[in-house]
Design brief:
Layout (H helix, E strand, L loop, with lengths): L3 E3 L9 H4 L2 H11 L8 E7 L2 E8 L1 E3 L4 E2 L6 E2 L5 H14 L24 H5 L18 H9 L16 H15 L3 H13 L5 E2 L14 E3 L5 E3 L12 E3 L1 H11 L4 H6 L18 E5 L2 E10 L2 E8 L4 E7 L6 H13 L2
Antiparallel strand pairs: 1-3, 2-3, 2-14, 4-5, 6-10, 7-10, 8-9, 11-12, 12-13, 13-14
Helix pairs in contact: 2-10, 3-6, 3-7
Amino acid sequence: MLRFWALLLVACALCAQEELAPDQLARIDRLLAVAAEEPGCALGIVSAQGLIYAQGYGLADLEQGTPIDSRSIFRIASTSKQFTAACIMLLVLDGALELEADIRTWLPALPAYEHVVRVRHLVHHTSGIPDYLDLIAEDASVDDAYAALCAVDRLEFKPGSRFAYSNSGYFLLSLLVAEISGKSLRAFAEERLFEPLGMSSTHFHDDAGHAIEGRTLGYSPRRRRGFVLDVTDLEMVGDGGLFTSVADLALWEQNLHEPNALLERLLERGSLNDGTRLSYAAGIEHGRLAGHATLSHGGAFVGYGAEILRLPEQQLSIIILCNRSDAEPEEWAEKIARILLEE
């Protein structure tokens, strides 16, 4: 038996039935439906007016039997990167930082590499710095992660010569924000992004002991049957570590449907030394789907998965947040986008 959990609609200018046809809703629900006793996902579809459709599927906490709803809080893994990039671009707009600056200006403990690593190299994954997640233990601290990067004095390639996705860049960007602003990434983002937008349930989770009301627990399926708890106590943020909800992300997406200086910076694609233009911008990937432009970024870590897929021409965004490691939010978001584009 399938069980669906309705979500509270937030900032909704038009009811869901006026925006989406019944057959569309039925196809979307069938795509994301899970058994009643399983972890699942939260879905939000956002227009320029706000959250126009939301639905929850499955449980936020298997022991408590708590259903997923629009306020359920998920770890969104690498989907966090666009928020770190937004903090960096705010510092650029403030005149406190230049993208061409040498990162060792603020992080002098890093090795004096053979080639200069600039802030833009971190933003666009072209730095050549190895991924810190490959260098640390499962119980590593923030200091351990930074020390591990400081101990590697050779880059994997010349900065700007190629694109290689690496969590190190965005972890180091979080340290840059702290050094330049005098505030942690968590505090800076709260002050400059989340509070102004009313995203009251969103934060960078840099304190593993911080209790969060409404938090979902991450799960991974067992080999035979059922699920096992799959969470982490790592406190590194920037590359991931953002905790948020569909309701809050709808406010973020609604804001980004309107042109502004910050959005312009976030959407500026990176380039290689030879002039090759990248599809990756600042925590956001440019793409195409069924002949239409897309802006997206996904994430997966421990028992969580997430995807934000934006259709800028249609002023629509699809948000999928999941608390099970076998979820496929990127694939599902694309399928939902195709359903929406049919109309």
